[in-house]
Write a structure and sequence with these properties.
CATH architecture of the largest domain in chain A: 3-Layer(aba) Sandwich
Strand content of chain A: 15-25%
Largest interface: A-B, 31 and 34 residues
Largest sheet of chain A: 5 strands, parallel
Number of strands of chain A: 14
CATH class of chain B: Mainly Alpha
Number of helices of chain B: 11
Shape of chain B: globular
Oligomer: heterodimer
Order of helices and strands of chain B: HHHHEEHHHHHHH
Strand order of the largest sheet of chain A: 2-1-3-4-5
Structural class of chain B: mainly alpha
CATH topology of chain B: ABC transporter involved in vitamin B12 uptake, BtuC
Distance between the termini of chain A: 78 Å
Distance between the termini of chain B: 41 Å
CATH architecture of chain B: Orthogonal Bundle
Shape of chain A: elongated
């Protein structure tokens, strides 16, 4: 008798659990490895906001469950984990892919399985040509080139020197910049590169310095090596303006470069200057809130990379609400029609031909003054 | 044009001095034990990172530097005592593999003790660049070259004039004979690891204000130092210095006049060429029994 009651109780409990089955958000992120400074804030952000959304009652009356794997920046691992997310964990959507390499390794899987996939990586190739199931949140390197060239043009520089690293980001951005330069009437008269573990770029910069007619220099670089470029640049006393990419947009770049960073310009997301935005700025509320929530929880500075994960998760949630279910095909269709979503990266207007939905207004041109970011008007 | 040449030369000499210090570390351990210590780069990292940490908690720079060199020396002793010595009966190849393992371990520990970020260190005497014949030089470069010179002179004195130095030399020439005349070769081995670690740490501290330092700074500097040691002739002190400076200058010239994309390639192509055509290096012992 007792046994039978117990069995019944278990059966009821199971039934209830089935109705309450959580919506599974799959993620594969480079939490460790060379991209850990990207993957780590992304992971923290996803954890924080899945928790917050659940505390607020979940989505569509169901709880969210985060299934996250550490791909350590390795495309092969990313592929394996994505396969596991799709086949074993049976997640409803994937938000992840810290680097372009990892993302591109997973794209064929997502396309084949019909799995909505919001990537957190930068390169244009992810959304160009448009892939049915793949979306992304970060700005592209082409947008960074566009933004920088517009600013250079405004300052009267049309002949520029380019120096870039050997990493994936650097190479991709260099390629994009070379491609779009002529749209702005800008001529790249010097094109130098340096290795990822290089410790001294004075030789390359001397060549740029001695190239006739250089009016500005762009460093398409990623991570912390551009700080060395900045110091060498100052040492050589190159008088023309130096531009950095959005790939160095962190406080640490200023700390490492010290005085040498004075006057350097770079495009970056609004998140970086949330306290300096005008009150009328559409992104002001979102970025300020994300910043304070992240910083009170983790006691570390917020980064734009964590912001990409925030946008990815919120877009997924928005799409599910819009679709009224977590059905993969419906969510995908809803994602494509999202308009006016205000995120940390900018205002997103998706369309069937644009799976990122950001325009140049998403980038702010910043200048480093007295060891802090200032907005260039 | 000549200003440009001078700029490349100065950049090459600065980094070359660092390569020379790392290469000396390789040579000292190689002499004492025939082992190529692939954890040499990690001493560079420990020197730089320890100095950064100690100055961050308020130590004056000179004290922090001395302490960092001592810390690295202790790590060097520990490496010999706990990793190399227990396996002393093993073949040289095994010992080399042990040092590779140790280097991975040390890098892993560094990410736990510190973090994975770059860290700046204040230059010893300001950052205002000096103008020399149209080229510019940061004052730290003078420190790098000057201290390297002092270290080389000290080492010359050490190997030529002190008992321990001579014992090290004797062991490198003939281990068995050294043992027979009463030299404790185990102490010699211990001393060689400590000395190499100290040299690495000095290199790491000197270069940190120019290039920053981080948990993995030792990988490339270690490899380049090894390349310099090979170029100069593994086991030769003057060879290590010559190899280091030559490598640094060739690299800078290559990046400047040929293509910056192939800066590292140039260095490693030279190593391959040396190994093919001049296996004992520029100043190495001309021996045919060991390549």
């Amino acid at each position: 008798m007792l046994k039978r009651v117990l069995v019944m109780l278990v059966a009821i409990w199971c039934g209830a659990a089935q109705a309450q089955e959580p919506i599974k958000i799959g993620a594969f992120l480079a939490v460790t490895g060379p991209f850990s400074f990207l993957g780590d804030p992304e992971q923290k952000t996803l954890e924080l906001y899945v928790e917050k959304l659940n505390a607020a009652g979940g989505v569509l009356g169901r709880k969210l469950q985060l299934v996250s794997y550490d791909s350590a920046g390795d495309a092969e691992k990313a592929r394996t984990f994505a396969k596991r997310l799709i086949e074993q964990d049976k997640v409803d959507i994937i938000v992840g892919g810290t680097s372009t390499g990892e993302t591109m390794a997973v794209v064929p899987l997502a396309e084949q399985a019909g799995m909505p996939f919001i990537s957190l990586a930068g390169a244009v190739v992810i959304i160009e040509p448009v892939k049915k199931w793949v979306f992304k949140t970060p700005h592209t390197d082409r947008m960074a080139c566009d933004k920088i060239f517009v600013d250079m043009k405004a300052r009267g520089a049309t002949k520029i020197g380019l120096i870039s690293g050997a990493g994936g980001f650097d190479k991709s951005m260099r390629g994009e910049c070379l491609k779009v330069a002529k749209n702005y009437g800008i001529e790249i008269v010097a094109d130098e590169t340096y290795g990822g573990a290089d410790t001294d770029m004075t030789a390359q910069l001397t060549k740029i310095k001695n190239t006739a007619g250089v009016q500005a220099v762009l460093n398409a670089g990623f991570g912390q090596t551009p700080a060395i470029v900045t110091k060498n640049y100052k040492q050589l006393g190159i008088g023309v303006p130096l531009y950095q990419s959005h790939g160095v947009a962190s406080k640490q770049y200023i700390q490492l470069s010290g005085d040498a960073a004075e006057g350097v310009r770079l495009p970056a997301a609004a998140l970086l200057v949330s306290d300096k935005l005008a009150d009328s700025d559409p992104q002001k509320i979102v970025v300020s809130r994300y910043r304070s929530e992240y910083e009170t929880r983790f006691k570390s500075d917020v980064s734009t990379f964590g912001g990409h994960a925030y946008d990815g998760l919120m877009l997924a949630v928005d799409a599910m609400k819009k679709a009224g279910s977590a059905d993969k095909a419906k969510v995908r269709d809803a994602l494509e029609t999202i308009k006016g979503y205000v995120g940390t990266g900018g205002v997103v207007n998706m369309s069937p031909s644009d799976h990122m939905g950001l325009d140049l207004s998403a980038f702010r041109m910043l200048e480093i003054r007295k060891g802090d970011w200032t907005l260039v008007k | 044009m000549s200003a440009q040449f001078l700029q490349f030369l100065l950049a090459g000499l600065t980094i070359g001095a660092i390569y020379a210090l790392v290469a000396l570390g390789f040579s000292i351990i190689y002499n004492a034990s025939q082992v190529i210590n692939f954890a040499q780069g990690e001493f560079v990292m420990i020197g730089g990172m320890t100095t950064v940490s100690l100055t961050a908690i308020g130590w004056p720079l000179p004290f922090a530097m001395v302490a960092a060199v001592l810390v690295a020396t202790l790590v060097g002793f520990a490496l010999e005592k706990f990793a190399v010595e227990p396996a002393r009966g093993a073949s040289v190849v095994t010992l080399i593999i042990i040092t590779i393992g140790a280097s991975i371990l040390l890098r892993g520990l560094a990410t736990l003790v510190w973090d994975k970020n770059f860290h700046p260190l204040k230059a010893f005497s300001g950052e205002a660049p000096l103008q020399i014949g149209g080229a510019t030089l940061v004052p730290q470069s003078l420190w790098v070259m000057g201290i390297t010179l002092v270290v080389v002179l000290l080492l010359t004195w050490f190997f030529g004039r002190t008992l321990l130095g001579k014992a090290l030399l004797a062991t490198s020439h003939n281990r068995l004979a050294a043992q027979l005349v009463g030299i404790n070769v185990r102490h010699v081995l211990l001393a060689s690891f400590g000395l190499s670690a100290a040299l690495g740490a000095v290199a790491g501290i000197l270069i940190a204000p120019i290039t920053f330092t981080s948990w993995d700074v030792g990988v490339m500097l270690g490899l380049k130092g090894f390349a310099a040691a090979i170029l100069g002739g593994l086991g030769s002190g003057p060879g290590a210095v010559l190899g280091g400076v030559a490598l640094g200058v060739i690299e800078a010239m290559g990046a400047g006049y040929l293509s910056s994309a192939y800066k590292d390639v140039i260095a490693f192509v030279i190593i391959l060429a040396v190994l093919f055509f001049l296996p004992s290096g520029l100043l190495g012992k001309r021996s045919t029994d060991r390549v």
